[in-house]
Amino acid sequence: MLFGRKDRKPIVIADKKVVEWKYAVCGYCSTGCSIEVGLNSAGRPVTSRGKGDAPVNQGKLCIKGIFEHELVETAGRGTKPLMRDRIYQTFQPASWDDALDKTAAEFKRIQAKYGRDSVAVVSTGQLLTEEFYTLGKLVRGVIGTNNYDGNTTLCMASAVSGYKRSFGSDGPPGCYDDFEHTDCLIAFGSNLPEQHPIIYWRLKEALEKRKFPLIVVDPRVTMMAQFADIHLPITPGTDLVLLNALAHVILAEGLQKQDYIDAHCSGFDELKATVAKYNPESASRICGIDADTIRHVARIYAKAPSAMSIWTMGINQSTHGSDGVCGINNLNLITGNIGIPGGTSLSITGQCNAMGTREWSSCSGLPGYRMLEKEAHRQEVAKFWGVDPDFFPTKRGLQQTDIFPAIESGEIKALWIVATNPLTSMPNQPRIKKALEKLEFMVVQDGYADCETAHYAHVFLPGAVWGEKEGVQTNTERRVNLVRKFVEPPGQAKPDFWIFNELAKRFDGGRKMRFPETTSDIFDEMKHLSKGEGRTLDISGMSHDAIERQRGIQWPMREGEQSGDPRLYSDGKFQTPTGKANLLAMDYIENNEVPSDQYPLWLNSGRVVEHFHTRTKTGKIGNLNKFSPTPYMEMNPDAARELGVQHMSYVRLVSRRGDAVVMVQLTQRVPRNMVFIPMHYHDCVNRLSLGLLDPYSRQPAFKQCAVRIEQVDQKEAARLNVERRAY
Amino acid sequence: MWQVRDDEPQYAFLKEPKAPAVNYYEAPIDLIARSGGEAPVNREMFINGEAGVGSNPNRNKQHAFHFTADNCIGCHACEAACSEKNDNPAHISFRSVGYVEGGTYPDFRRMNISMACNHCDDPVCLKGCPTRAYTKHAEYGAVLQDPETCFGCGYCTWVCPYNAPQLDPIKGQVSKCNMCVDRLEVGLKPSCVSACLGNALNFGVVEDLPDNREQAKVSIPGFPDPDITHPNIRFQQIKNMPDEVTRPDGMPVKYHRDEKGGYRPVVDQKKGVDKHWNLTRLSSRENPLVVFTLVSQAALGLFFSAFLGAEFGLESLVALRESVIYVPLVAIAVGLAGIGMLMSATHLGKPWRFYRGFNNLRHSPVCREGLGMLLFMVFAGLHLLAVLPENTVFISLAGDFGRYPTLATTLGWLGLAAGSVGLYYMVRCYRIPARPFWDHWQTGASFVGSAMTLGGLILGLLGVPALLLAGSAVDQAITVAVALMLAGCVLEGMGLVRHAQVMDAANNEGSASHYIQCTVFGKSYRLRNGLLGLNIVLSVAVLVLNGLSGYAAPLLTLAPLLLVSVLSVALIGRCLFYVLVIPTTMPGAFFWKNKDFEEHARDIGLAHMPQVGVVYDRH
What are the contacts of B34-40 at 24+ separation with CB within 8 A? Predict the structure, then answer.
């Protein structure tokens, strides 16, 4: 009442009336933030807040986490199993027994007719680790198909492959705490403020305490690039050239840590011979970064007492993504920046449990980073599960991106999709649609019945989502963290591990094996399997309760230890047969689809902070979705002027694969020969993308292809925009 | 009381200030001192009805946001934390992040600006609000608004330069940032600040720099002139922005660096230079106000001319006053004013609360306008009753009730006075610094001009036939009515010419409005201007013909032409007045807080999906 009125108006501020807080690690990205979900007296989740004493997020949450409790109210959830004989028919509700019986029978029929591998399973990075382990056990030990992979092939496969090639095993060696110690950081194709805002905050906190050079490699002027001390606006797809040139300068000027290399690395001479060809001058002609800047960056990085590299899809989603990862690893190995505080190669992972699937799902091998290719691993797991070791293939089968072509060619007749939406997320959507129509049988198991892929399914199994089941997830820095169950799944939806267990019962092999009924029992089984001499992925010291108490624990945490280990390879011992890290000599091969006269623009794609994946969740939460409710693209205003394209108008983009209609945002954030489209929308960027595959990781190069822009009738475009937005 | 958690992170706590005694604008930071000792210390706030004084030792100091513009990453965490805490639906947001950007790839910079209520020293919202829903508290200097008091007129959303008050078309009421006073009471920063991931947003006693910060500027590019309200926000911006920065939303405004290093708005020709009709776009949610202002002004013009003309002894108007038509004329004036009041009430989010419109006579021009018009109706109505016994038709029907000329005259003058007050504040309502297109004397010229033109029109339309029927001379009546119209048109015309010149040169949001006027509505604008010229020509022609004899036939053809033209000018002109105004708001983003996208989403049907965050205007 300073002024206004003397008689007081009541001050009313929303009160959520929380009576209980439940602990959960976030179900969106792989930062691994600890959340407390507030329940009201009716037991409904009404609010979310960051856990104050959690080491990862220290009370902070990004926009998605802040509204995560609203997930329980989102539209489009699957509430009962659905079935139909033909995909042109309408789904009919079914009982769980009927749906699972039919699924098991169809898998058996198709396997009997076309062979064991004619059934393919495409999983995800969205389940709990215990569920991944169970699914792996079911697929590898019971169903017995080798065509089993996760959608992690679309995001982290190159990091996995690169880690394996350099260090002998998957597993990011660093942690977020390295920001507090490093003296130089390079971010390759990683836009933290948009993709991993909490990790950005950790970096920002470190920078406010102690300034160190921040170097960002990105073809777009992202906020991260803008805040960098040095921004390298690289030509798309040429990271390996830059990395080789950086190594060239370091070796040419003798800035490498030779004693570290001699003690802990192999392949130095080959590396030296290869990078000798990449002098900064010739490299600059390919990667678009001038020679002086390359030298400057190489010197800063090599001379820093400790230096670290982080990367995300800018590296991974490329035709030489795996080589790019190895190139980053090379850089850190020759400068002695592995396993030391502030010195690391840290891939910033995408999905909440991409790490969990890499560790335990058996997609790329056998649980706990074990490999099908290794006889001892097959024996060990077969014995543990109680199956015949010969039941396991001796070599990894097809990856997700090769499964769809195998459907095309008729090798695969049945497909089981678990919590992923390839119709929106796979490159070259026209090809995926055509392939899916060829299947004799497809099961989609998802939390959302309205995910686009379900349109092609014969059976839909409704899964439980975040907070509707209990279990662990692993984050980017190997921190195993827990989601408590705080709400029942809607209708008849069931936790995915229950679905796996029930399906296992419908196979002879499955009935003979043990499938524990609770995730904590499953976790105990995994703990057992994680033990072993010299193993890094050891979780035997953990338990669900201990994980909650410590707000997540970084593996390895061996039996009897009090906590986990923040870094791998601090002892300089790697998971290779020799114990030494591999320096890899890699030549750059130009194999991208590059802009041409017919298709004169680069098409780049990426994430926006308010959306996650294919928007099945975030597209339904107004306070997220409203920030970018319809497809749009960033385009350079100078290029637009030439074509007569206006801000906020619609255009049609055409590539060699198909077309897409988007709204134009004119901004100098992108160069004149490039457009950028957020990846999340259905019927959008992946109608255009090519997705050439990396030879090692089989990850698609989403971010590099060529398009042209055509004018479109504005009314027709607006109509299409509305039609294509079920959410 | 808000619960501080056991593991509350350190960054969430307010810091002990080392602030000076006065703020940048020389106002005492101690709010007890600022209130002249009137406000009591240790007063309970009764948040959600809860008793108890908060533990915050600085609760009687003016608090402010501090925004490090160099750091904001545009991650929406502040907006989300705010909407989550306040349980706001998607289409309402107390805090919004927009941005400006400039440069040429890769020498490109984007600056995100997160903005909520600035709890101003001079809260124009509070002063404008007719219902007194706003209070500036001696606790934290928070400007709080009570949605349950609000009747949804939206005037605060007009006067606020920062787009802080949020009018919810669904609930029909305004709500806004409450500074998280519940958190402040226990020593915690507001939830937006605690949620910030770029270390951009901070909060504390005004002028007290947060740790690690060195600047407390009062403005940054894209921020409206702080002199309008003395907002409680300070900025740090050390990194330079390019000389010209643009907005991603549809507003045709960009910002240029001026000589002093500040940024001023200039027109951004986003809509091209072609002229369009866009007649349907002239219809807006302010349609009731178009009707309200026009009919009120017509009522005033009619009453003023009929009453004053007779008072001044103009022969034909004296005849008119003595004729049977005078009562219906006054009745029409009262009726039009009544329709106006009704329209202004339907414009409210909660029309049944119209009676609250007179609660802030001390500050609000809206109240004074309303009261003026209401009293005008009352006095003109009483005047009508007082002249009724003189009316021959009345006498023949009801008998002789005597004569009350003194009373009638007194009431007439009172009506005149009330109407003048109403009209004056009707103009004042639109002289808003945050809406430069309106903040010009042309608003007054247009309102007075409309009163004269429309008043003259009705006077002529009804008076001349009445006099003809009564067998009286009509020459003078025609002259008076048309001269009045001519004067109104000329006044409006002069205002428009000057306004266009000023807006062209102003380099502010008014210039942008004028640019839209000349392009998006270019043809409609031209039509209006042409017709206004035609009105003047026709009026002169009528006056000339009326002065000569034997030209009754041409007069009869010109009159309906003039009628149609006058009404078209009034309607198009007033619609333009409302649809064109561009407030000095913060820049929006590409979708969120982009008026053009909102309009598009409504046009194409996207707004039917609640998660798009756009709702249809309903009232």
Answer: B34/A2, B34/B62, B34/B138, B35/A2, B35/A3, B35/B138, B39/A1, B39/A2, B39/B138, B40/B138
